[in-house]
Fold this sequence. Notes:
This protein is of the alpha/beta class and 472 residues long. Helix content is 40%, strand content 14%. A hairpin with a 4-residue loop joins strand 5 and strand 6. The longest helix is centred in the first third of the chain and has 24 residues.
Amino acid sequence: MSDWSAESDQEGSVTDRKENIVKRDFNAWRKRRSFVEMDSPLMCQKEPNEACRDRLVRTPTIIAMAGLPARGKTYISRKLARYLHWIGIKTKVFNVGEYRRAVTEHAYKDFFDPDNAEAVAILNQCVQRALDDACQYLSEDGEVAIFDATNISRERRRFIHNYCTQTHNFRVFFVESICDSQEIIEANIKEVKLKSPDYKDLSQEEAVADFLLRIQQYEKRYEPIDDKTDERNFSFIKIFNCGERFLVHKIAGHIQSRVVYFLMNIHVTPRTIYLTRHGESELNVQQRIGGDSPLSPQGKAYADALAEYMANENIPDLIVWTSQMQRTIQTAANIEAPKEQWKALNEINAGICEGLTYMEIAQKFPEEFSARDQGKYYYRYPGGESYQDLVARLEPVIMELERAENVLVVCHQAVARCILAYFLNKDAEDLPYTKVPLHTVIKLTPMAYGCLMECIPLNIDAVNTHREKPKV
């Protein structure tokens, strides 16, 4: 590893389911529930066991980033990890920069000089340690490990590929970010790099100057992935200028297909996503779940307040998305913006429990009521959906949200929980208990390494539909 030179430092820090006939049909359904709706690997009605896991990820995958500093590799790594985690794939990022910062207090431009033998040795040790940890993670119960490093030389990439495929029998997929837009590079430096622990003791001007010199050190050794060399046998995607153009080569397997699908939909344009539940409905007032009831008087008041709020925000090119249920359509009716109705945004299907109160469900179907409390994310209502099913249904919505600019999504409690879980990286266990109160606007601002959330109550009274997680 001694020839790899100074190419290992990374961006960012290391730093979620009516009497006689119904009962007869319900019992028949219970007998066959283990054999239905299992065509998709994301549609397991209970927590995945090894067999279910094997259907989704047969061979663990190392996703290795590649490219010069300030090209958005860590941004891509973290967004990709969040997406894979959200769809139920166990994923972890291994950022070589964090390993390096654990052993060096400061690393300015000279540290990355390929002629600095001492620094090269330190960087190579950090690379090997991070790669070993990633492989150990996949050897235990991990499914995808994202190796976040520059990996700018063919020798380095060849080593990663051979080490992971031959020594560990994992798949390897390279993601190279190439950017020649000085505007994008400078924006990335100012938004991300200046907040790095490397520059906590420097002024902004000093940090920018030092980082530009660091990039020059990397450029001395940079060899882009080249399918005219032995890298023709590698699986990879090249991303040019944050999504202007893509080159996809030798995709192998389910995971790599999902990764490419995701990467070709994200962008880094600044925007705000507004999220709100419909106004209070008549069934909300009765504490009944599901259904397609109209708004209550308080719900209509919220619709008026929401329209006024959005007008005052003066959002350019705003688009409003609603479900196909009347309570969301009524809520958005007065907003002056183009509107689209999404069936995928409809509330979770409660099956035979639609229109019942929680007390009625507990009385009529006590076993089901208890089962849902024991595993709410994976529990599927008889004849209905689980939160896991809902996540699978919402994936196209998430992809469009990643492509869109300024959007207001008017939806439902369970749907909003799933969307928030994606942007806030919540675990499956916590997702079904996320608080999403009525008559509140949630502003989501995607940032370089996460998402900023702001909650704005519009001060219209409404019932509380949140049910706390039962104590075990």
